[in-house]
Structure formats: structure tokens, C-alpha cells
Amino acid sequence: MQQLVDNRYRLVKPLGSGGMADVYLAHDSILDRDVALKVMSTRYASDEEFVERFKREAQSAAALSHPNIVSIFDRGVSEDGTYYIAMEYLPGGTLKDRIMSKGAFPARTAAAVALQIAEALCVAHEHGVIHRDIKPHNILITESGDVKVTDFGIARAASSSTMTRTGSILGTAHYISPEQAMGEPVGPASDLYSLGVVLYEMLTGELPYDAETPLGIAMKHVNGHLHQPKEVDPSIPAGINAITCRLLAKDPEDRYASDAELIEDLERVAAGLEPAATTTKMMATRPMPVVAPTHVGPPPPYGGRRNGKRRRGWPPVLAVLALLLLAPLAWLGYNLLDNQEAQVAQIAVPDLVGKTLDEAEKEVGDDFDIEVQKEVDGKKPVDTILSQQPESGKAKKGSTISVTAVGTQVADVPNVVGQGRDRAQQALQGEGFEVAVQEKESSFDDEGLVISQDPQGGASAGTGSQVTITVGTGPSTVKVPSVYGNTADQAAGILADYELKLGTVSKDYSSDVAVGQVFYQDPAEGESIEPGSSVNVTVSLGPEQAEVPEVYGLKLVAAQQKVANAGFYYNVAEVEPNNDEAAGTALSTDPGAGTLLEPGATVTIYYSGGPPPEPTNASPKPNEGNGANLRGALREGFQGIKGGNTGNNRGNVIGKNNGGDKGGKN
Fold first, then answer.
1. How far, in Å, CA of 77 to CA of 267, rounded?
2. What sections of 398-526 are H helices per DSSP?
3. What pLDDT does residue 282 have?
4. Active-site residues: which are they?
5. How many other β-carbons are positioned within 10 Å of the β-carbon of residue 575?
6. Domains present along the chain, CATH in parentheses
7. How far apart are CA 4 and CA 39, in angstroms?
8. For residues 294 and 653, what is the distance between their CA atoms, to the nearest angstrom?
9. Residue 550, pLDDT score
10. Which parts of the chain have pLDDT scores under 50?
11. Whole-angstrom Cα distance, residue 543 to residue 290?
12. Residue ranges with strand state E in 524-650
């Protein structure tokens, strides 16, 4: 078989093989999903009618949509002319696998499974599709425990050819209906008969008919005696026994008239009730078929003619008399059985909730049967009973107590995000979980800490299952380059080369670099930071300027100190004596007070030389007017200096010690 079918489905492994097709697990390369690929056997590829019906029925099956029917995704023909059907893949195995591994099912479980199959058949029959190959091999089990019917329409494609080819029966002889075995037309009742065989096998773990050859098996379906399920296992309830026997009636007219009628009975039994009165009375009044010898050669058609004449039945009068005689006897027998059941002892139902299944079975002993109706996830140990039905009161001795038990023990997953690696592992292992550790690049703050986990904290997961934690390893880092002496735009370009960004740009006074250049950065040069981080810088506004202080009226020494404290150098210059200021008194500065200068600039301090000397020779008393005029002239000259006017007014003042003594910053 080629490994790639239709340039789309890559075969992974074989899943099974039947009379007409082989099934493979395949991967759909277009939709990226696994499918079950059913490939028609090559021995039928040359049968045009078979192929045509295969294609037509595959199309009909694809139109069926129901939760209990396997979905058909695609159908087609490969390059070598082989026809295939792509179906939903269910890895849970088949119902046959489950019966073979675990044996017979509890009665209510068997009824629930049969109910799902019946609902699938109901949809198919409403669409005019007869399955013709209902068997546990064609019932797939989902992960949730539900079942889905597969192979719709494929068995119907075989109807155009005879059922017998070279002495072998096409199909599965253990599950075919009597009319199917006889080659007569089949309908919905034939599928219900096959469902009855499946139900019989679920209840007893055995098949109703068996023989050494497929032909012998088929003939037993036609005329063999049925051993009721209750004969094989007396614990099987009468209700489900009646349903099974009605499904296995050899005459289609004696089976259920519709899928809906069967579904109603199965729903009642699955709920712990008896089936409808019609089914119960039918089983009570209908005699079991007489064992007939198995024919070696081909059988006559079911219900047909022999040598051109129909076989004679009982004369009508005798038949009526027999019915009149048997009906009261059957009714009497039914009432006697019902009375005997009513006389079975009623005993108290024990409280099994909280006990394990082993403990419960020991407690009830032979008084009750315990049936696990449902398994659920729970925090208590596996097999702990969470609920039961009936819960209390009294019930018949030997009846069944249905329980819901823990199938998988679960626990709440601790939230370990933000914790250190070792502490997180201890916390998870303390709750019964296995721990897998992954590492991932992270921020500096998350280095060595759990940054994520799967499942998340607070989720429920099975004890012993795995929780994966991801631990931060810190970032890949870069060293910060120096941007000192560059403009802000130049700094941004330099930082980009190192996968860093320019952050905040501040401004401040600095005499270290020119105006507009960076004189400070944070982080500093050489520090390791994450790629994409920001570096903040401060650019220079130039040196910070200061005001020239006011020194008028201060002693020269104090004036010098004040100028130096303001951050300036100074020169001193003496002006001509005057009568207003004492010698050594500061008069003004150049530049004048309040002028803004850069620190380190030189300021000239002018100070008074004192009043003029007294004359040595006696002289007439000066004219008051002339004296007043002289003092006024000196005052005007002084005021010019005090105002800081170093232009024309300074020309009227003669300084001593030109250049002065240059002071220093103190």
C-alpha cells in the first residue's frame, strides 16, 4: 500500500482489516489532523457495481450527523484507482476490545450503550440508510466513554452482489439477521436484530449463536434455539432480558416496530425501570422457537416456498384453539412469577458513601450487587464511593446498588508563579504532582523565579500528573556606552547601535562641556542592562552666572571678601580723597552691582582714599561760596563712581595703584 494516499493522507499505521476494506491511522497534511482512512480492498475494485454503490453509500453516510455517529470527512479515489473514505479518528478502541478485556457489562451499562447505538440507527434509518453490519467491532469508544457507530453505508454496498461467494459469507456471520443470512431483503429491523446480538454479548460476554463455519453460524440465526441472557446469567434483570429477546426474534414482525419504541424501552431500563408493558407481555405470551436441525446445504428462503408450494402451517381452527388455551396459561405463569418476585425479602440498604469499592463489597456481602454506574474525578482516593442509588431505605435482597465512584484522584494545583525554583518544586511535589522545569529568558527581577506554570494555579489535575514550570534566566545584557560630550541627537544614535534607547533629556548648568552637550548619564558607562532599556542624559546650559554684589559703604577688606564669595576675582583701585567717605571705604565696582557674570570673572573694587589733607600755611578764610562749590564738584565726581559709571565719569577720578591688587577667591 502506498504511504501517501491522494497526495494528502500519509499512512501512519494499520488499525484493522475487514472483509471489504483496510483501516489505517493517517495524517491529513492539508488540515493537519489525524484521521481513520478506510481503503476498499483491491479484490472489489474491479466490480463496477460494487464500486458505484460504495461511492453512493459513502456519500449518504457523509450526510449523517449525530453525536453517536463517526463523522465522514472526505471520500475519493487515489492515484492507483483505490477508493477510500476519511473518517473521524477515535483512539479509545472498539466495543469488542472492551468486551474482550473486561467481560460482561452491568445490565444498566449495557442498556446505556445500546441506547446510544439505537439513537444512531434511528438517524440513519430516517435518512434511508441501513447499516447491515452492526457489530461491536464497528462501535468505537470516545475518551468520555460514549460510543459512536462507524461504517455506515459500506455494508449496504455489498447488497448488489450475492451474500455468498465461493462458499463464504460476506460480512460477519455472528451478527447478521436471519433474513440477511437467507439473502432476503433487509430493512431497519435487520439492524435492530444485529443490535440485539451486540446487547446479548454485552450482558453475557458470549455470543447467542456459534458454530464451526460461518455458514453454520448463519443457519443458527435462521432456526437455532436462543438461550435467553437470563439463562446464561440469572442475575440479569428481567426487563433487559425481555428487550434482548424481542430484538432477537427471528421474524422481523416480532421485533420492535420502530427505533423510537426500542429507545423508549432502553431509556426506561437505563433509568432502573421496567420496559413498556408491550415488551414484557410479548415475552410472557410468546413461546420460544423449537430447535430445528441445522441444514448442511443452502437453506430455503426464509418464509419462502419449497418445491413451488408454501409450507402448510397449522389449520386456522387449531391455531385459534391453541392460542385460547395458551394465553390463560401464560398469563397465570406471568402472575406467579410476579408474585414470587414480590415475596423476595426486603432488607435495609447500607450507606456506602465514603467507602472504597472493596470496603463496600465486603460490607454488602451477598445481600446486594454493586454496580459502578459512573466514574468521576475527585479529591478522594480512587474507588471512593461518592453517591449511591438507592440512597437508603429497603430493597430486594440480591438487587443492585448503583454507585458513582472516584475514577481519577485530582488535586488543586498550587500557584507557584513568583516563587524560587526549589520552593516551587517542593510545593508541587508536596501535593502529589510531578514537576518538569523549563527555562526562559526574563527580566533581571524575575531571574531564578517561576514566571509561568502549566496547568495554572488553582486548576484541578490528576495526582501524579505533570506540572511544567518555567523559570526565568534573566535577560541577555549589553554594556552602556559613554555619550559624554555629545549632543542629545548624537547620544541617541550611539545608544541605538547598542540596542538601547535615549530616555529623558534634562538640562542644567555645567562648565565642563559646551552648551548643548551631555555631561551626565544614567545608567553610567559600563553598566550591564537589558537590550531595549533607556539611558537618561543631562545636557549643559553652560556655566551658571552670578550677580556682582553691592559693596558700597563696606570696608575694603569686607568688600573683597563679598566679591570673592560670589565667585569672582577682584582688583582694587583707590580714588582721590573726598570729604564724604573715610579712607578704605568701598565706593563701587566695575562691572556694577547686579551685573550677571560667569564665575571666575574679575571685578574691580573702587575705594576711598579719605578726606583731602589740611593746608600747611595760614590763609584767609575761604569764601563760603567757593568752598561750597568745590565740595559739590567732588561730590559729583564721587557719585559718578558710586553709580558704576566707568565711562566719562571714571575719567574725572584718578586711581592710585593703577591695576590694583588682584584678589582671589576665598
1. 42
2. 421-430, 488-497
3. 65
4. 133
5. 22
6. 4-46+71-88 (3.30.200.20), 95-299 (1.10.510.10), 346-410 (3.30.10.20), 413-472 (3.30.10.20), 478-540 (3.30.10.20), 546-652 (3.30.10.20)
7. 12
8. 156
9. 95
10. 155, 157-170, 287-343, 619, 622-666
11. 124
12. 528-529, 534-540, 546-547, 569-575, 586-590, 596-597, 602-608
- Contact at 8 Å (CB) between 608 and 577? yes
Residue type, 518: V
- Helix (H) or strand (E) run with residue 76 in it: strand 72-77
Cα 532 to Cα 44, 194, 401, 477, 596: the distances in Å are: 68, 71, 68, 10, 43
**What length does the chain have?**
666
SS3 99: helix
Dump pLDDT digits (tens) for 505-541.
999 988 889 999 999 999 999 998 888 899 999 999 9
Which residues are bridge partners to 569 per DSSP?
Answer: 602
Summarised one tens digit per residue, pLDDT across range 190-206 is 999 999 999 999 999 99
Secondary structure of 168-214 as H, E, C letters: EECCCHHHCCHHHHCCCCCCHHHHHHHHHHHHHHHHHCCCCCCCCCH
User: Which pLDDT does position 164 carry in this prediction?
Assistant: 37
Q: Concatenated DSSP letters for 506-548?
A: EEE--SSS-TTSEEEEESPTT-EE-TT-EEEEEEE--SPPEEP
Count Cβ neighbours within 10 Å for each residue of 423-447 and write b for 16 or more, e otherwise: ebbebbeeeebebeeeeeebeeebe
Cell of 167: 462458499
* Distance of alpha carbon 580 from alpha carbon 637, whole angstroms: 12
The type of residue at 91 is P
pLDDT for residue 26: 93
Q: What is the pTM of this model?
A: 0.44
The residues, any chain, with a CB within 8 Å of residue 345's CB and separated by 6 or more, are: 396, 397
Which residue, among 488, 584, 493, 568, has the nearest Cα to 536 in the 3D structure?
Answer: 488
Q: Where are the alpha helices (DSSP H) in 257-364?
A: 259-270, 277-285, 316-342, 357-364
C-alpha cell at 132: 447491515
Looking at residue 425, its amino acid is: Q
Question: Residue 106 and residue 202: Cα distance in Å, rounded?
Answer: 8
